[in-house]
Specification:
The protein is α+β, with helices and mostly antiparallel strands. The protein has a single domain, classed as outer membrane lipoprotein receptor (LolB), chain A (Clam). The chain contains four helices and twelve strands; from the N terminus they run H-E-H-E-E-E-E-E-E-E-E-E-E-E-H-H.
């Protein structure tokens, strides 16, 4: 009888410990590395960037709680080399409302966009690795015939979210990479805290585009240009 009680007590203890260890709110610091030679391979990037400058590094912050997330560029006063070569988007995601809100800079203009959450068909693998001290499971998304995106998510961090517009896995994405390694996001630090509610308040803007509306407008203006399909894919399909 005593053995059964001891076993039950031990089981309840470990179950409570497992629940307690799961994180529902946090601040996560991400480092993004972009290989500019790979990104601009169709445009002779060697003419634009020195070999020692081909890897551009940007930092972001992801704030999460059990109802929302905010991914945004990390503030910095440092002068940035080749700032135009990569995008720095801010993305709010609200899973319970099936809604996302984004601030994107396209051709030097800051645009505010809204849409439903981006649904991706993930395939979860058995491969694992540790990122920022957390055990992560590898998954991938076949974006199109030639593009695959890999993600590493942690079951220990509950909210289904991640960098940019990525979400839809059973835990927070701590690593994200294109198949060729041209763009790689990895969490560098996870701080368990409760983000201020003000962070999840969407900024007020007179003009807010629905994404289908903006895509239609851009297609009418630039649809015949050779570079347009690539730009559309980068801004509105992959990320």
């Amino acid at each position: 009888m005593m053995n059964k009680r001891l076993a039950l007590t031990t089981l309840v203890f470990f179950f409570a410990l497992a629940i307690k260890s799961q994180i529902t709110s946090a601040k996560i610091i991400f480092e993004r590395k972009t290989n500019l030679y790979k990104k601009f391979k169709a445009y002779n990037p060697e003419d634009w960037f020195k070999e020692e400058d081909k890897i551009k590094i940007d930092f972001f912050e992801l704030y999460i709680n059990d109802t929302a997330s905010l991914f945004k560029p990390q503030d910095s006063d440092l002068r940035e080399l080749n700032s135009w070569a990569t995008s720095k988007n801010s993305v709010w995601q609200f899973p319970n409302q099936n809604n996302r809100y984004m601030i994107k800079t396209i051709w030097g203009e800051e645009l505010h966009l809204t849409d439903t959450l981006y649904k991706r068909k993930w395939q979860i693998t058995e491969s694992t690795r540790k990122i920022a001290g957390y055990n992560c499971r590898k998954a991938f998304w076949q974006a199109n015939d030639s593009t695959k995106i890999y993600a590493w998510f942690s079951y220990d961090i509950v909210p289904s979210t991640g960098p940019e517009t990525f979400m839809g896995l059973p835990g927070t994405i701590l690593g994200l990479a294109t198949e060729d390694g041209g763009v790689v996001y990895f969490a560098k630090k996870v701080e368990v805290l409760s983000p201020e509610k003000e962070l999840f308040v969407i900024p007020k803007r007179k003009k807010v585009y629905a994404i289908p509306e903006l895509k239609e407008q851009l297609t009418k203006q630039y649809g015949k240009e050779k570079w347009f399909k690539r730009m559309l894919n980068e801004h509105f399909t992959l990320w």
